[in-house]
Please model this.
Amino acid sequence: MLEEFKPTWMLKSIYNLTPDQIRNNNIKLILTDLDNTLIAWNNPDGTPELKAWLKEMKDAGIPVVVVSNNNEERVKKAVEKFDLPYISRAMKPLKRGINIARKQYDIEPQNIVLVGDQLMTDVLAANRSGIKSILVKPIVESDAWNTKFNRFLENIIKNKMIKKYNIEFKWEIKLND
Model:
């Protein structure tokens, strides 16, 4: 059961992900969580770093799709200034949002990655869907009220994974091939 929570990779930030790393791992579609992955949950305006990263992916022809558990209004408002496609009410850790994106882009699971800041939703959803996952460090330390419980459970799972698999939860700067 613990294997379902194991990310493919761990990165310090989504902004460390480059087109070369994406291509080298045969990824053709980036799905990303919204809050605390792409933008700070309490700052929907994003940063210059985010805008530069999105431009870099767009220029490289790599589609980026937001897959969020938030409602339509919240996600639309957050991503419209970035001109990003999105799937709201993804219901992660269920496969719903990932399956919708996969069908829309007609891309095989082995060529998709989901980037997110939570084991309990993002990594678990990716693993259940047979796609790669990148766990990123949350952009800000504080969380929305509904995420705090997940973080508590994540710490328990991380400790069990460390003991069972001798895994080191370490934030990398680039994907380890």
Summary: The beta strands are 9-11, 29-32, 64-67, 86-87, 112-116, 132-136. The radius of gyration is 15 Å.
